[in-house]
Write a structure and sequence with these properties.
- This protein is an alpha+beta fold and 245 residues long.
- It has helices at 2-24, 31-44, 114-132, 140-153, and strands at residues 48-49, 64-68, 71-73, 87-96, 99-108, 157-158, 164-166, 173-177, 194-197, 200-202, 208-210, 217-219, 225-227, 230-235, 238-241.
- The strands form four sheets. A five-stranded antiparallel beta sheet has the order 8-7-9-14-15.
- Strand 14 (230-235) and strand 15 (238-241) form a beta hairpin.
- The protein is globular.
- Bound molecules: 2-amino-4-trifluoromethylsulfanyl-butyric acid (MF3) and cobalt (II) ion.
- Residues 51, 54, 56, 60, 65, 74, 91, 93, 102, 104, 196, 229 line the site of 2-amino-4-trifluoromethylsulfanyl-butyric acid.
């Protein structure tokens, strides 16, 4: 219970940081500006940055990942200016009292195309369909299958290379929770487990590749991609989303 309280604190700060970042999104601002809005909130609360320095091709250089249009995840904030019609994914990780909060959201910049709007809605709906399955006695495959079903019924595609994950004192813990799979398979959910559920969904083909910067992941076909994520605890009263404001 005490650990969960710390995770809620981390989750709340993370939600506030994401909200500030989303408020900064408008045509003409850079992705570095959007990142700075999130960093400011983490600083104000004395929270740590779970992503900064994270091991990879080289230590991850920022507090957030900001991924625009065909960029799926791990876009590095920088001088790129957002334009009306873009969709932008903002992924943030915080640390409070040694516990990690991890969440992401994708929003439109100004007016966006109808198909882009539908991609955002379906990806968010898939996240919540997965969250709904986060109940004691269910299997991780139940979460995965629920997400996949929402996505594929809408005619979109689940990225295979990246998955949801356990989260706690470390950002990435067991179990991995893919966004596709078979109901009734995988580890059984127990009270107190906390999992970051994070569908990464492509409008076009599912396959992805990395850019030369070593971090940014883009769709192979150049189609749009969306990402929504919450850190969710299994409780006796059902799923508890720790990263809501
Ligand atoms: N939400 C992402 C994840 O769960 C963030 C990791 S980005 C990194 O994997 F920079 F920290 F690697
Ligand atoms: Co995550």
């Amino acid at each position: 219970a005490r650990d969960l309280q710390a995770m809620r604190s981390a989750g709340l700060v993370n939600a506030q940081a994401l909200a500030a970042a989303v408020s900064a999104v408008r045509p003409g601002v850079t992705t570095a500006d959007v990142n700075a809005a999130a960093v400011e909130v983490l600083r104000q609360h004395g929270a740590g940055m779970a992503f900064l320095g994270y091991p990879g091709p080289y230590p991850y250089p920022a507090a957030t990942c900001i991924s625009v249009n065909d960029e799926l995840v791990h876009g590095i904030p920088g001088p790129r200016r957002l334009q009306a019609g873009d969709i932008v994914s903002i992924d943030c990780g915080s640390v409070v009292d040694g516990f990690v909060g991890d969440s992401a959201i994708t929003v439109g910049v100004g007016e966006i195309a109808e198909e882009a709007q539908r991609l955002l809605e379906v990806t968010c709906a898939a996240l919540f369909a997965g969250i709904e399955r986060m109940r004691v006695g269910n299997r991780t495959g139940d979460v995965s299958a629920a997400i996949q079903s929402v996505v594929e019924r809408a005619g979109f595609n689940v990225v295979r290379e990246y998955t949801g994950h356990g989260v706690g004192r470390a950002m990435h813990e067991d179990p991995q929770v893919p966004n596709y799979g078979q109901a009734g398979t995988g580890p059984t959910l127990k009270i107190g487990m906390v999992i970051a559920i994070e569908p990464m969904i492509n409008a076009g083909r599912a396959d992805v590749r990395s850019l030369d910067d070593g971090w940014t992941v883009v769709t192979s076909d150049g189609g749009l991609s969306a990402h929504f994520e919450h850190t969710v605890a299994v409780t006796e009263d059902g799923p508890r989303i720790l990263t809501l404001e």
